């Protein structure tokens, strides 16, 4: 069967109209699903031996957060290698990456599957996948007709990638022969806050400005630092990491600036510090607010003059280092309280970036959950890991005080629990697999106001009551030990202190 001229014209128009690539691609696959009678369709970008979903229709929302590696998905590997239309037989023994991910068909396997690899010249840049629940769903469409669709989609995707590359180059002009940006870190999210953060990263990455990254513990500040480094000319050199909160005061100066033999007891040889290791590269100072005032003064000198002194050495060493700093504290308040130097704060915060907490990112929770489901599937060697609709609703309703890190741990724990309860390697996550879903959303304080009428608290107030009760119970069970209580609650101890303060449980 050939496509009608009207059908092809409609597809071409969908690819040409609209101002954003995301909107354009979404309309493309929605149109394809209608024209071909698919149950599901997806447009994927190919990068670093994995397919990254750009737009989906008829698939669960968490698919947008998944990353499909060739090694973990033999059907997608077959599409990548084929160079032409791929039709998988209904009885193919290759697992389908979308099994359980078509809403309303979670317990059924996909029967009809067509893959269209997308090329720019000889280079694979993406794929279109078309899926249906009926084995003969695409038999009426010829390979020639499907190749036309692939050609249109490949042209649109290639143009989008070229425009994206030009835009990133125009944000900060580079010298001839300069570096090419590396593939971006896994910063998953389509919420307004994350979209704005990605734009700001693109703007400042190629510069040499110091950047201060602030955000709650577990929001992904390390990924922001990695993206800044990978998008800079320094990407060809090292990104050196140092957690200032984990530094004992006695060795902090040596860790930063190095030492010479005999500088102190135990200094049996010369040793380079993090600044020397990061020369011509980037130094990421995590939890910068934990540095002592004395070390802050020495760090300020390096930022001002570009030289360091090893502990026990009178000589200066020139270094060329870009400093990225991160904190979960409000450094402005720390400056006012005299715990952080104002001059260092202004040196570091030339271009501040703020990472939004997960509770403010809306549906990004589901995208991230999909990503962690896929990572768990690969790590544990499972055939599939999917979330049922009730589990997605539970994830969206939870406030995630531990942010993305808490979500990652929750998904992995849920997968381990679900796997233990089934005989095979097919895992479907339900609310019962998540510990936070075992509790009612409100505390026992919700009482009857009048006969037959229940007093309903505002959701935020009820949630805070429940959080107070859980924190109090954890502290009572662990003899008021905050670190042990935080572990029992599945969250970072710094976040627990912050949450307890916000809830009025700490002075």
From TrEMBL:
The record ties this protein, via InterPro entries, to: AAA+_ATPase, AAA_lid_NorR, GAF, GAF-like_dom_sf, Homeodomain-like_sf, NorR, P-loop_NTPase, Sigma_54_int
Please give the PROSITE patterns that the UniProt record associates with this protein: SIGMA54_INTERACT_1 (PS00675), SIGMA54_INTERACT_2 (PS00676), SIGMA54_INTERACT_3 (PS00688), SIGMA54_INTERACT_4 (PS50045)
Q: Where is the Sigma-54 factor interaction domain?
A: 187-416
Q: Where are the transmembrane segments?
A: none
What the entry lists under SUPFAM superfamilies is as follows: GAF domain-like, Homeodomain-like, P-loop containing nucleoside triphosphate hydrolases
UniProt entry keywords in alphabetical sequence: ATP-binding, DNA-binding, Nucleotide-binding, Transcription, Transcription regulation
Q: Which domain of life is it from?
A: Bacteria
Name the Pfam families on file: AAA_lid_14 (PF25601), GAF (PF01590), Sigma54_activat (PF00158)
* UniProt-listed NCBIfam families: PRK05022.1 (NF003451)
Q: What name goes with this protein?
A: Nitric oxide reductase transcriptional regulator NorR
Native organism is Siccibacter colletis
């Amino acid at each position: 069967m050939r496509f009608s001229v009207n059908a092809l014209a409609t597809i071409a128009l969908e690819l040409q109209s609209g101002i954003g690539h995301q909107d354009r691609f979404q309309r493309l696959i929605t149109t394809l699903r209608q024209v071909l009678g698919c149950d599901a369709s997806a447009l994927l970008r190919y990068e670093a031996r994995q397919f990254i979903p750009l737009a989906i229709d008829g698939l669960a929302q968490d698919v947008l957060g998944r990353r499909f590696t060739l090694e973990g998905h033999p059907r997608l590997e077959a599409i990548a290698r084929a160079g032409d239309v791929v039709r998988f037989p209904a009885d193919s023994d290759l697992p389908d990456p979308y099994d359980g991910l078509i809403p309303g068909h979670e317990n059924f396997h996909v029967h009809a599957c067509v893959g269209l690899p997308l090329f720019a010249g000889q280079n694979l840049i993406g794929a279109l996948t078309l899926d249906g629940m009926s084995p003969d769903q695409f038999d009426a469409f010829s390979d020639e007709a499907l190749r036309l669709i692939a050609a249109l989609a490949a042209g649109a995707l290639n143009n989008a990638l070229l425009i994206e590359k030009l835009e990133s180059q125009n944000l900060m002009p580079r010298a001839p022969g300069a570096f090419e940006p590396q593939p971006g870190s896994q910063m998953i999210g389509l919420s307004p806050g994350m979209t704005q953060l990605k734009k700001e990263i693109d703007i400042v990455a190629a510069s040499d400005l110091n950047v201060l990254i602030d955000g709650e513990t577990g929001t992904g500040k390390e990924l922001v630092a990695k993206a800044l480094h990978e998008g800079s000319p320094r990407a060809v050199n090292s990104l050196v990491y140092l957690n200032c909160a984990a530094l004992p005061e006695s060795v902090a100066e040596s860790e930063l600036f190095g030492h010479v033999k005999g500088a102190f007891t135990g200094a049996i040889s010369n040793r380079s510090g993090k600044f020397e290791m990061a020369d011509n590269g980037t130094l990421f100072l995590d939890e910068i607010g934990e540095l002592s005032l004395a070390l802050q003064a020495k760090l300020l000198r390096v930022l001002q003059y570009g030289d360091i002194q090893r502990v026990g050495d009178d000589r200066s060493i020139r270094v060329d280092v870009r400093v990225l700093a991160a904190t979960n504290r409000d450094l402005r308040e720390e400056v006012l309280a005299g715990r952080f130097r104002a001059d260092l704060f202004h040196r570091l915060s030339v271009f501040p970036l703020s990472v939004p907490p997960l509770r403010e990112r809306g549906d990004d929770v589901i995208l991230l959950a999909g990503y962690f489901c896929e990572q768990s599937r690969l790590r544990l060697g499972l055939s599939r890991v999917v979330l049922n609709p009730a589990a997605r609703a539970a994830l969206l309703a939870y406030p995630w005080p531990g942010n993305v890190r808490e979500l990652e741990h929750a998904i992995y724990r849920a997968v381990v629990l679900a796997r233990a309860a089934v005989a095979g390697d097919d895992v479907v996550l339900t609310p019962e697999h998540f510990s936070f879903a075992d509790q009612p959303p409100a505390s026992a304080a919700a009482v009857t106001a009048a006969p037959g009428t229940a007093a309903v608290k505002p959701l935020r107030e009820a949630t805070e009551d429940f959080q107070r009760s859980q924190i109090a119970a954890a502290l009572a069970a662990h003899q008021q030990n905050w670190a042990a209580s935080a572990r029992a609650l599945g969250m970072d101890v710094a976040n627990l202190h912050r949450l307890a303060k916000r809830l009025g449980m700490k002075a």
